[in-house]
Design brief:
- This protein has 469 residues and is α+β, with helices and mostly antiparallel strands.
- The chain has three domains: 1-228, no CATH class; 241-315, Helix Hairpins; 329-466, 2-Layer Sandwich (Heat Shock Protein 90).
- It has eight helices and 14 strands.
- A hairpin with a 5-residue loop joins strand 6 and strand 7 (164-172).
Length: 469
């Protein structure tokens, strides 16, 4: 069990670590993408500012040779005409996107002067205007022999004479790449450390949470080894699932203890009840072997019948305890009462029939007839001179009542008499007092038919059953 708990802790720690790792990887990836996009946008904005600054100089009439261009390494700038001829280039800028950009390079023919422009090109710009649109794209530049990546912004402008020029300024991407790489490296270093902390904390928390479970397991093992069902597992003070598990376990142990104790009493009482008729019958048979003329045949028959009834009662109780369900048939209680009472010709006290209301109940006729017989037998033992049976309907229930004119059951004993092998003192005084199983069997059958059996007054026993359908 310890290994099982250990595996639970390990699985919980591993599961939490995997979930956190996936969440951190997803979050880290999103952060890097957002950071990269922000830095790239910032680089594009810087390139656009540089390009518009140079375009502003061109629009105000500054000669190309006197343009104030940014430092070539950080902000490479190239000013070209429509035919690709380079009009101006930043310091140490040798090539852009692999194309040489030395001053005067790139033209396919002789360059045109500003006087050659017709003033209608460049998106309809007028002399001295700068185009509002900007073209942002990534590229590379060779600055003093060092080739690196840049984000370029291209802006068109017309000088004061109407000549079209395109200013292309770049912003280095190396700082952005270095920043992203630094953040990525920090995440790669911190992620394993964070996962170790998560795994450790989850392990400790799970271990503490499962500690009551180990206590419950240990106590259950001790109960199993000692067979002492009076012991109970420890109940934690928390009102969580483990606390409910402990309380449910104790309730189960209490029910099991009660069931085992009831079974022990049942076995002991059954052994005691069986011993008397068997011993009496054996004595009579032994006497008959030695002195046949002394054989008490009626007494032997009585003991045999008593033993047979006791064995039948024990067998029925065993079937009821095993969960045997009654047959799903319809039983007319009034007809059953008439039939069963008509067969009781040897009763000490005649049975009078009272009201017999019509109605059917669902269940086993044999078992319900057994209940009626046990109630009548009990009434016969205690009646002075009258036994009465009736069936009445009350709402959706039928009530079968058996009443005698005997002294009645004391209020303090009205539940105890339904326990197995329980007989009141006056019943024990009679020779035909029975084994104390009749009422116990009757109540078990009533409960399994969805009804109840109780003493309503001192000498009235009432069986209530739901009406079928």
């Amino acid at each position: 069990m310890g290994r099982a708990l250990g595996s639970v802790r390990a699985r919980a720690a591993a599961g939490a670590t995997v979930v956190v790792a996936l969440a951190l990887v997803a979050a880290g990836t999103a952060v890097l993408l957002v950071l990269r996009g922000h830095l790239q946008n910032q680089a594009g904005l810087q390139a656009e500012v540089a390009a518009r600054d140079v375009a502003g100089q061109i629009a105000t009439g500054t000669p190309y040779g006197k343009l104030d261009l940014p430092d070539g390494e950080d902000r490479p700038v190239v000013v070209t005409r429509d035919d690709g001829r380079v009009l101006a280039v930043g310091e140490d800028v040798r090539a852009v996107d692999g194309k040489p950009v030395g001053k005067g390079a790139g033209g396919s023919g002789p360059g045109r002067s500003a006087d050659d422009e017709d003033g209608d090109g460049g998106r309809g710009l007028r002399p001295g205007e700068i185009d509002d649109d900007v073209d942002i794209r990534d590229g590379s530049a060779d600055v003093d022999g060092n080739v690196a990546g840049y984000r370029f912004a291209a802006v068109e402008a017309k000088d004061s004479r109407g000549a079209q020029a395109t200013v292309r300024a770049g912003s280095a991407l190396a700082p952005e790449e270095d920043t992203v790489a630094s953040v990525r490296d920090a995440m790669l270093i911190g992620l394993p450390l964070l996962l170790v902390v998560v795994a450790g904390v989850t392990w400790l928390v799970t271990r503490r949470a499962l500690r009551p479970v180990e206590g419950i397991r240990g106590e259950m093992a001790a109960i199993t080894a000692s067979t002492d069902l009076s012991r109970r597992v420890p109940v934690p003070s928390s009102r969580d699932e483990i606390g409910r598990l402990a309380r449910t376990t104790n309730e189960t142990l209490a029910a099991l203890e009660l069931s085992v104790e009831r079974q022990r009493r049942f076995v002991a009482d059954a052994s005691h009840e069986l011993r008397s008729p068997i011993a009496s019958l054996r004595t009579q048979l032994e006497v008959a072997v030695a002195h046949p003329e002394l054989l008490d045949v009626p007494g032997a028959v009585v003991d045999t019948v008593r033993l047979q009834r006791l064995a039948a009662d024990l067998l029925l109780l065993a079937r009821l305890d095993a969960g045997e369900r009654p047959a799903d048939t319809r039983v007319e209680l009034a007809a059953m009462v008439r039939e069963e009472t008509s067969q009781r010709v040897a009763d000490r006290v005649p049975v009078r029939i009272g009201e017999l209301a019509g109605g059917e109940v669902a269940g086993s006729r044999g078992q319900l007839a057994r209940v009626l017989g046990n109630l009548l037998d009990n009434a016969q033992r205690h009646a002075d001179g009258s036994v009465r049976v009736a069936v009445v309907r009350e709402g959706e229930e039928l009530a079968l009542r058996v009443e005698d004119d005997g002294p009645g059951v004391p209020e303090s004993e009205r539940e105890r008499i339904f326990e197995r092998f329980v007989r009141l003192d006056d019943a024990r005084a009679r020779d035909d007092g029975g084994a104390g199983l009749g009422l116990a069997i009757a109540r078990d059958v009533a409960v399994r038919h969805g009804g109840s059996l109780a003493v309503r007054t001192g000498s009235v026993f009432e069986l209530r059953l739901p009406v079928a359908g």
